[in-house]
Specification:
Radius of gyration: 20 Å
Largest sheet: 3 strands, antiparallel
Pfam family, one: FCD
Helix content: 55-70%
CATH class of the largest domain: Mainly Alpha
CATH topology of the largest domain: Four Helix Bundle (Hemerythrin (Met), subunit A)
Shape: globular
Mean pLDDT: 84
Protein name: Transcriptional regulator, GntR family
Order of helices and strands: HHEHHEEHHHHHH
Strand order of the largest sheet: 1-3-2
Number of helices: 10
CATH superfamily of the largest domain: GntR ligand-binding domain-like
Keywords: DNA-binding, Transcription, Transcription regulation
InterPro entries: GntR_C (IPR011711), TF_FadR/GntR_C (IPR008920), Tscrpt_reg_HTH_GntR (IPR000524), WH-like_DNA-bd_sf (IPR036388), WH_DNA-bd_sf (IPR036390)
CATH architecture of the largest domain: Up-down Bundle
Structural class: mainly alpha
GO molecular function: DNA binding; DNA-binding transcription factor activity
């Protein structure tokens, strides 16, 4: 039997599924694992998440999987489609443009604030550490590793703001966009190096304690990324 949708999964006979106590920890672990696979490109936009296969692979209960799917929907990573079940979200060009408009406002502010607080506590040391880690890709570009380092670069800037609400908002608007980047494999070296050069401009503003320069560089970086993304062949809807 093939339980590909959440509704079908609810109606499945219990004997067909390995029972597992539904706990918050199980749901958290499942949602985090699937999120990681999406962000790393192992699950790609348009791909169906087959409930039966995931239950067997992860050894989880149907209720835990259903709740994990709902969390991924809330994060903007998964769509629940009638008669198809859970599908990794595929964003349109308009959706990406809209998301980047929001990111420009939020992350432009975050870069400005980071420049203002760079010398508070251990902010400068933490930021420099992340910046140096990303610089390895100038000489040895590794796209999968770069995606992780890229998110860490943006993440540390937000962390320095010490604003949980801002952090939650930016997380929500970053996740759906980064998964699209993972589908691009042509011209990766150029994409990585261009992005790193723009990171250097952002970092220069932050490390100099120049809020205007940091904000401007971040906004330019995001719009360059948006322009590159909307031109990708990967944005064409899957057939």
């Amino acid at each position: 039997m093939n339980y590909e949708s959440i509704d079908q999964l609810d109606d499945a006979p219990q004997a067909a599924i390995e029972p597992l106590l539904r706990t918050g920890e199980t749901v958290d672990r499942t949602a985090d694992l699937l999120k990681q696979q999406i962000l790393e490109g192992r699950l790609v936009p348009g791909q169906r998440l087959i409930s039966r296969d995931l239950i067997e692979e992860l050894g989880i209960g149907r209720g835990s999987l259903r709740e994990a799917f709902r969390r991924l929907v809330a994060d903007g990573l998964v769509d629940l489609i009638p008669n198809r079940g859970a599908v990794v979200r595929h964003l349109s060009v308009d959706e990406i443009a809209n998301l980047y408009q929001v990111r420009e406002a939020l992350e432009g502010f975050a870069a400005r604030r980071a420049a203002e607080v760079i010398d508070q506590g251990d902010n400068r040391a933490r930021f420099t550490e992340v910046l140096e880690r990303g610089r390895r890709h100038f000489t040895h570009p590794d796209f999968q590793a770069f995606v992780v380092d890229n998110r860490q670069f943006h993440r540390i800037i937000v962390d320095m703001c010490n604003n949980p609400q801002l952090s939650e908002l930016i997380d929500r608007y970053q996740l759906p966009v980064f998964m699209i980047q993972l589908r691009q494999r042509i011209g990766v070296d150029a994409i990585v190096r261009n992005s790193l050069a723009e990171h250097e401009a952002i970092a220069a503003g932050i490390l100099a304690g120049d809020p205007d320069a940091a904000s401007k560089a971040m906004r330019q970086h995001l719009w360059h990324s948006a322009d590159a993304l909307v031109k990708l062949p990967a944005l064409k809807p899957p057939k």
